[in-house]
Specification:
Layout (H helix, E strand, L loop, with lengths): L4 H29 L2 H10 L5 H25 L7 H14 L9 H11 L3 H30 L5 H19 L1 H12 L8 H15 L1 H28 L6 H21 L7 H14 L3 H29 L1 H4 L2 H9 L27
Length: 361
């Protein structure tokens, strides 16, 4: 099936427009609820030059997260991908994060298939595990903030989320159980035809959650999220809060709670959920006024979400012929996640997985 240029790009841009529209709606909601005149007053007295180090911290955050992304690709056996192409694919995912259900992020797997012929089922766990390890890292930071601030009312969130993460990790690491489930799926009509795809998906997921690999990824996630928290801290200091350890811990807790809220909500780019959490936490935990919290939320979300969206769109535009040729859009139009391998004139190559541990049984 051949798609016209207009049709291909419309299919890519449409879900991003949905996320962008939600973002605009949230922006105006904050303006209205915060009292525009008071919010404007906060903007007039804010030292805007402080955004330079804040944006710098965000760029370093991207660098750390890219290292984790490339590490994951190495774990699942993706070879023949240059650092330049890997970085371009990684950054192209920034605007895809604002698609409904982050569904457009599946395009990263299609792009990787186009560049390396790595099976889709082999790279989907990489996209999912980025969020998984970030979630675990955020729990570490929330726990540290709770101890530092004696904010014990938040322990319930940590315990519940840690239990869910733990259950998922244990299930994936019990190979006999997972292999038995895969054999059972193979016997089911219609589903059984994708048994090999499920096996590739599980093999990649298994390598990622092995303890040494998981520890490395979570440590990278802790560093990346600490950089974000430091950025929030600088914004709060710019708004007049004292440059103390308590302010930093408050910033870390606010930022981490927003990540958790966004993940639970499933909203595109955590739009709405993260904004509401940041605004509410800044008022209840830090003690900012409604207008001050609204202003801080707009600045934080610009740096942490919309800046990446704009940068990612720029990368996609300039590398569009390399990353998004017609074959990628045609594959996306014909296949959905979990529907087996993408077919092309070149059959997909199965690359052996190498990890920091002995091979699984």
């Amino acid at each position: 099936m051949s798609l016209s240029n207009h049709t291909r790009w419309r299919k890519f841009i449409h879900p991003l427009l949905i996320g962008g529209s939600l973002g605009i709606g949230v922006f105006f909601a904050i303006l209205i609820l915060s009292d525009f005149s008071q919010l404007l007053q906060n903007a007039m007295y804010f030292p805007w030059l402080i955004l330079l180090p804040v944006i710098g911290l965000r760029v370093i955050n991207w660098g750390v997260r890219f290292l984790k992304w490339h590490f994951y690709l190495w774990l699942v056996g993706v070879r023949g991908l240059s650092l330049t192409d890997s970085a371009a694919v990684f950054v192209s995912g920034f605007p895809m994060s604002i698609s409904p259900g982050k569904a457009a992020e599946f395009l990263k797997c299609l792009i990787l298939f186009h560049l390396t012929r790595a099976p889709i089922a082999q790279t989907i766990p990489v996209v999912a595990s980025e969020r998984f390890s970030d979630g675990m890292a955020v729990l570490v930071l929330i726990a540290a903030a709770i101890v530092g601030l004696s904010a014990h009312e938040y322990w319930g969130i940590v315990i519940l989320c840690a239990a869910l993460f733990g259950i998922g990790i244990i299930i994936l690491q019990v190979r006999p159980l997972c292999m038995a489930l895969l054999r059972l799926l193979a016997r089911i009509p219609l589903i059984g035809r994708y048994a090999h795809t499920f096996e590739v998906f599980y093999a990649a997921s298994y390598q990622i959650v092995l303890l040494p690999n998981l520890v490395i990824a979570v440590c990278m996630g802790v560093i990346a999220n600490l950089l974000d928290a430091l950025g929030v801290y600088l914004i709060l200091v710019g708004m007049g809060l004292p440059p103390t350890l308590e302010t930093f811990l408050q910033a870390m807790l606010v930022d981490s709670l927003a990540v958790v809220a966004g993940a639970i909500s499933g909203m595109p780019g955590a739009i709405g959920a993260a904004d509401l959490t940041i605004t509410g936490s800044l008022q209840g935990l830090v003690g900012l006024s409604v207008a001050g919290a609204g202003f801080a939320t707009l600045v934080i979300r610009f740096v942490q979400l919309w800046l990446g969206v704009f940068v990612g769109l720029g990368v996609i535009f300039f590398a569009r012929h390399r990353l998004l040729p017609a074959t990628v859009f045609e594959a996306a139009a014909q296949h959905q996640v979990g529907e087996g391998e993408i077919q092309s004139e070149h059959p997909p190559v199965s690359v052996p997985v190498q990890v920091f541990s002995a091979s699984p049984d």
